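Posted in: Structural Biology > Protein-Ligand Complexes

Title: Requesting predicted complex, glyoxylic acid in pocket

I'd be grateful if someone could produce the 3D structure tokens for the following input. Sequence and ligand are given below.
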Amino acid sequence: MKARVYLTRHLPGEAQSRLKARVQLTVWPAATPPPREELVRGLAGAEGLLCLLTDTVDEALLDACPSVRVVSVCAAGYNNVDVAAATRHGVLVTHTPGVLTETTADLAFGLILAAARRLVEADRFTRSGKWEAWDPGLLLGHDVHGSCLGLIGLGRIGRAVARRARGFSMELLYHGPRRHPEAEEELGVCYVSLPELLVRSDFVSLHAPLTAATRGMIGRAELGLMRPTAFLINTSRGELVDEQALYEALAEGRIAGAGLDVYAREPVDPGHPLLTLANVVALPHIGSATLATRARMAELAVDNLLEALEGRRPPHPVNPEVLTPGG
Ligand code: GLV
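-- Reply #1 --
Done. Output follows.
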């Protein structure tokens, strides 16, 4: 008897057909997340859920779907899942870190370059027909090479950004809940307090997961410490930042610009104040969006799900304690 699995969106690449061959699969066909009632209906009698970061898995859903044993999130960040509730329900949660590290670091670095050198504004300008002559004062930006990069979070992605920054001769600072002496040695990154990082950095790049401790960690006070020539780069989660405070800092020229891939509410409202500012580069949460990486994420999400459903330890469990009850 094949296990029943509900998949909340079509997956890129071959992973979905591999999953379909092994389980009884129901797929939500739309391009937007299934509404709660549909999710509950689809999960009736299902043992597995393969979902995206847009699907909320909370206590109420787990209560309503007692047959579910495994929740496989096709993302590195799993803040959409109440992991404590899942653990209480004996539900294993898995995610897909590692395979998207370099791709997301590429995008973070792209945002640094795009924000500092005004690439998006320059593209719009070129197309607008306003370009009259080479002009020594046209679209002047800020140098990336030789500047100071402050990384908030030095996990896989933070380190991958640091490696890129070394090629640009950047000074590297980091802050996080703990020090990483081996990374300090290998990458030449220097641990500093959060205020010192904010005061010294030309680019502040966020690479922390969204947790109770990090939610809103960049607010008015933190932005107030940044230099008027500095940029905030966010490829992690929007809720790390107080967006109203960020808007005010940008609009009043208290910081130079921002490169954002993530927002407190996604999709971000096109009328959002941040999107009215020329010194903001705004992307639609595409950090891991390459053909190869999205296919690898889907493969890993399927591996995690199948291994767990078949009683083996999956590659990336979030709450492995549910695998050894009482242990
Ligand atoms: C994307 O934001 C992810 O967490 O994988």
